[in-house]
Amino acid sequence: MREMILLFQFEDRTRKNKLMRALLPLRMKIKEVSWEDYGKPMGYLAGMKEFVEGNESDFPGAAQLDREEVLHERLSGEMLVMAGLNGDRVDQVLRSLHKAGISIPYKAVLTSSNQSWDAWKLFAEVKQEHEMMT
Which is nearest to 42 in space by CA: 13, 74, 8, 89? Predict the structure, then answer.
């Protein structure tokens, strides 16, 4: 799997551009995930072969929810997910963010445990862990 950073709920354009500039030297693919895709598995969003070969209609996603429910289900904060990175590369991402002065409380690494989760489940888990640590 190619190294990739998935971005969720980054709506402030200036902040998002600063983040992209900070990560650019690392030469990783950066993918903004639209809320319509929040119901798809993280592995699918990261382009993992076993998910890509599946039928996309197997993932209902937000597109099939009614508009009011979808608006209610947007994430309550920004989330950054690192996919296909080894430990050193994760450290490089974190150092680049710190050096650029970008604080993102909700960060995750794609693992075999969470690759089948959708954005809402992953965010809930990351948020809970963050709250326990702070």
Answer: 8
At 59, list the tokens: 């993932």
Q: What distance in Å separates the CA atoms of residue 89 and residue 82, rounded to the nearest whole number?
A: 9
Residue 33: count of CB within 10 angstroms of its CB: 19
Place of tokens 């909700």: 106
Of the candidates 66, 53, 69, 51, the one whose C-alpha atom is nearest the C-alpha of residue 118 is 51
pLDDT digits (tens, 9 = 90+) for 64-84: 444 444 444 668 899 999 999
3-state DSSP assignment of residue 100: coil
Angle of CA points 17, 95, 33, to nearest 5°: 40
CB 42 within 8 A of CB 117: yes
C-beta of residue 8 within 8 angstroms of C-beta of residue 119: yes
The pTM (predicted TM-score) of the whole model is 0.84
CB within 8 A of 126, min separation 6: which ones?
A: 79, 106, 107, 108
User: How many helices and strands (H and E) does the chain possess?
Assistant: 6, 4
Q: Answer yes or no: are the C-beta atoms of 55 and 35 closer than 8 Å.
A: no
Which residues lie below 8 Å from residue 25, measured CB to CB, with a gap of 6+?
96
